[in-house]
Amino acid sequence: MFETMAEVNKYLSTERIECLLCGREFKNLSIHLAMSHNTTPDEYRKEFGIPYSRSLTCRELHILLSEIQGKHLRKYKHDHEEEMGGYFKLLRTAPRKKQCPAVKAIKAKQLESIRPDPRLMTQETKDKISLAHKGKDTWNKGKTGIYSKESLQKMSNSRKKNRENPEYRQHMSAIHKGKPNKYKGVKGRYTEKVLHKMKNGARKRYADKAIIYKGKAYTKQDVADIAGVSRVAIRQRIKSGWSVERLFESRQS
Questions:
Q1: Which residues pair with 57 in a beta bridge?
Q2: pTM
Q3: Interval 12-70: pLDDT, tens
Q4: Looking at the domain that runs over 5-57, which CATH code has it been given?
Q5: What digits encode the pLDDT tens for the residues 118-132?
Q6: What stretch(es) of the chain map to CATH 1.10.10.1550?
Q7: Spatial CB neighbours of 31, under 8 Å, sequence gap ≥ 6
């Protein structure tokens, strides 16, 4: 079974592709698999770890078929350009119009009936998608400035809303339960700019959660040391509605 995309590319870039079930070589494996092994190309790809987006044809035949398909498409567009009244040209140049909410809702319902909810996908479907994207970089990897400020704000608000949802937190906790932290002990993971942002964020969170008494900021642990109780007790007292003065004045005898 192939483990990297380099192995897959090497296997499919030869003049003839070797059938890994019987050892014979062909330019196209699809017909051979159906006739000799009673199996489908998808089952063959799944068994040997080949992405579903790759055709089981040798490099020469793959290039030839791509050229033929491109020629047919260009010829069709050229022959029907006048017939369609410049329709293809209009598609390329016309600005995209915003859809009304009603049309969006109808299309969303149609997509739901065609494309299942990712949470309801079977493991086999998930494996197919995983193999299709194996070895490929994400489309936005290393890119900056691809999202507008509004989009970034929406994404941030969505993450905050999810973190406040108890069901979501329980779900994420169950997923990561028992798994080791892959970043534990790893140095150099963040750049200096990112570390500076994280430090400022931590300071801001500390300032928001700090207990101010007589112009000074105290942490819950500081208040616990002064009052002579545990930090958990201070936290419970704050939840119960104790005033700041009462927290500092209630020393344990």
A1: 28
A2: 0.33
A3: 888 888 888 888 888 888 888 888 888 888 888 888 888 877 888 888 887 888 888 77
A4: 1.10.10.1550
A5: 566 778 888 888 888
A6: 5-57
A7: none
